[in-house]
Write a structure and sequence with these properties.
The protein is mostly helical. It has five helices and no strands.
Length: 139
């Protein structure tokens, strides 16, 4: 006799997303504070290092999570809700990315804006593929 797997309820999924999202948002805040302390307010406002770093780390983590769920997917929907939608959704900041990019363009810093957009997008996609690749070779 095989056990029947039931999908998580809307309430349990919502709770997982909310708890994970709160934690991810706190991690994002912490990253900003760490960068501010490390490089100071002038440098932190000159280039969005915190946003860039969380987008790259978040993309790598999403690749690792997606690879893990693909490999060990049994019961993975709650983990996807908690970690993928919740924690990583709260942690990664592409909405902040868009705002900062628009601000750079409006300031006339087109070269820096292009560099920021290119590194964020290409690095994020490469990070995702790196995470997937690492999970494929994991024993």
């Amino acid at each position: 006799m095989t056990a029947v797997m039931t999908a998580p309820t809307f309430l349990s999924s919502s709770l997982a997303v909310a708890l994970g999202g709160g934690f991810g948002a706190w991690l994002r805040y912490l990253a900003g504070r760490l960068w501010l302390g490390a490089i100071g307010p002038a440098q932190a406002s000159a280039f969005p290092w915190a946003t860039l770093s969380v987008n790259l780390v978040g993309s790598l983590a999403m690749g690792l999570l997606a690879g893990w769920l693909a490999r060990y997917g049994s019961g993975g929907e709650q983990w996807r809700m908690l970690l993928g939608v919740g924690v990583l959704g709260g942690f990664t900041t592409f909405s902040a990315f868009s705002l900062e990019l628009a601000s750079m363009v409006q300031r006339g810093a087109l070269g820096v804006a292009a560099l920021y957009a290119g590194v964020s997008v290409l690095g994020g996609v490469l990070g995702l593929f790196a995470g997937l690749g690492l999970m494929r070779v994991a024993a």
